[in-house]
Specification:
The chain has 18 helices and 11 strands. By secondary structure, the protein is of the alpha/beta class. Strand 1 (29-31) and strand 2 form a beta hairpin. The chain is elongated, with a radius of gyration of 37 Å. It starts with 7 loop residues before the first helix and ends with a helix.
């Protein structure tokens, strides 16, 4: 029989069959599970209960108990003003006060609209004090003591009491949701979950602030040069000490920039030439004026970081580090001083600067970290106005090597060149190539880097790439880890993303 031949009687018979309880039970009722949880099949009566949005006595009791709970939180926040100047504490108190007031208003309206009283019920078998303690609330004695404190003492006790107070609210929500028939009202369900999430978020923030509160001035120090301003505000001057050995150049006590000596002045005739030079104060004689290098002595405390371990203090930067032992009076005594063989903060980037993305990335990154940067290469491979980026520009490889503590060598990117940028590869190597002879003439040990791939015998000789100055293999190995770390942070720094990346999957 086709659909066209269905009679009214047939349709009635079919509808009656579908409506029978037997057929209705053949279709399962599924309740989706929470994230990472399985769904479950419900019975008809269970599904009916889930659809019931009526409030329960437990819902009413929760609201009645939570109102005085929130009220005490407001009493705690009212004590903050005038007792602490910690900006984090002021923010926390302001945030709690605003949220608790709004939630108290909602709870009163919820109870009123349902004809319920606001009075907190008495818990059988419990005194009022025991009831308050079970809710995480502070005792009258604790509130009284808090009102007498100031500064770090106030901050510490406030955070302790408020954290316990918030944990009590979280426990109250959990206990409510564990009872059958509670929070069926969608409004009620949303509210109690908001309370839990908000209180837990405040707990996390308070734990961070509490970890910084200490009588030790080192407790508030944060890692990284960007936090130097915050760090120094939490410190006081104990003593001023002279620079230790290795960070003080007796030949240049003022750390003046070095004078550039012309080749004609070098050797045995240098003193004679200097004695017969015209007065450098003569403005009309430009050639007679002294010329100075772009930087001063490598021995300095510029960009210094510090770290503590027990009574040991270590300070250091690109140029070396010093270890001090802190006495009982806080005055440090020098234990050892280590000077790096080269100026690690001075980086010369040499080679094809014009076509290099590595050069630009290195310039921006190194300058941001406080290093001094120089570039060197043929004028035809030097971008116009490169000095405006804050770098020193050299055209002679010898000058770049003499200036640097680190040499980052770039390859000639011939695939990007469409003209005669250099006479020949042989000529380039002769004039600008990094050779062991040029490195041996440097005033200090120079670290040699290369991003790869290398043109051996062009921008760098094989005995340099494989020699004692080279850290190229370490650079390449660490470069992979650095790229992974950067991608991890850009992806949000989530552990699951890192694990997924290890397994080659998706997070």
């Amino acid at each position: 029989m086709t659909i066209r031949t269905l009679t009214a009687a047939s349709l009635l018979s079919l509808a009656t069959a579908i409506a029978t309880p037997a057929l209705a039970q053949q279709a399962p009722i599924v309740q989706p599970g929470a994230p990472d949880a399985e769904s479950r099949t419900l019975k008809a009566e269970d599904a009916t209960k889930l659809a019931d949005t009526a409030f329960s006595p437990a819902d009413v009791m929760f609201m009645q108990m939570m109102i005085p709970h929130h009220a005490q939180a407001l009493e705690l926040t009212e004590l903050v003003e005038g007792r602490t100047s910690n900006p984090d504490m002021l923010k926390i108190a302001g945030r709690i006060a605003a949220s608790q007031e709004d939630e108290m208003k909602f709870m009163r309206e919820w109870l009123s609209s349902r004809g319920q009283s606001e009075d907190m019920p008495h818990m059988p078998g419990m005194s009022h004090a025991e009831h308050m303690a079970a809710m995480g609330m502070a005792t009258p004695a604790q509130m009284k003591r808090l009102a007498t404190l100031k500064g770090n003492e106030f901050d510490a006790l406030f955070l302790e009491l408020m954290t316990r107070h918030h944990k009590g609210a979280v426990d109250m929500v959990d206990e409510l949701l564990q009872q059958p028939g509670t929070a069926y009202d969608p409004v009620m369900f949303e509210f109690v979950n908001d309370v839990k999430n908000e209180q837990q978020g405040e707990i996390d923030r308070m734990n961070v602030v509490a970890a910084r509160i200490s009588d030790d001035p080192r407790a508030g120090l944060a890692a990284g040069f960007r936090d130097a301003g915050e760090a120094i505000s939490n410190m006081r001057l104990v003593t001023a000490m002279p620079k230790p050995t290795g960070f003080f150049d007796p030949a240049n006590p003022a750390q003046l920039q070095p004078r550039i000596v012309d080749e004609k002045e070098e050797g045995e005739e240098a003193e004679l030439v200097a004695a017969t030079k015209p007065d450098p104060r003569d403005e009309d004689d430009e050639e007679s004026k002294d010329r100075f290098g772009q930087r001063g002595s490598l021995l300095s405390f510029a960009n210094t970081d510090m770290a503590f371990s027990g009574d040991m203090l270590v300070t250091g930067n690109y140029h070396g580090f010093n270890a001090y032992r802190l006495g009982a009076d806080g005055v440090p005594s020098l234990v050892s001083s280590v000077v790096c063989p080269g100026g690690q903060g001075d980086v010369s980037i040499v080679g094809d600067i014009l076509h290099s993305r590595v050069a630009r990335s290195n310039i921006y990154g190194l300058l941001k970290l406080g290093a001094e940067v120089a570039v060197c290469g043929p004028p035809t491979l030097m971008p116009p106005a490169i000095q405006e980026l804050g770098v020193t520009a050299f055209t002679r490889i010898e000058e770049a090597i003499e200036w640097a503590g680190v040499l980052n060598v770039l390859r000639l990117q011939l695939e990007r060149m469409h003209g005669g940028f250099v006479p020949s590869l042989r000529e380039y190597n002769r004039i600008w190539g990094v050779s062991s002879q040029r490195l041996d003439a440097a005033p200090r040990d120079v670290l040699v880097l290369h991003p790869g791939p290398m043109n051996r015998g062009v921008e760098i000789d094989s005995d340099v790439a494989d020699g004692p100055h080279s850290v190229i293999l370490n650079q390449v190995t660490n470069g992979v880890a650095i790229r992974m770390a950067v991608l991890y942070l850009l992806a949000g720094g989530r552990q699951e993303s890192a694990e997924a990346a290890k397994q080659g999957g998706e997070a």
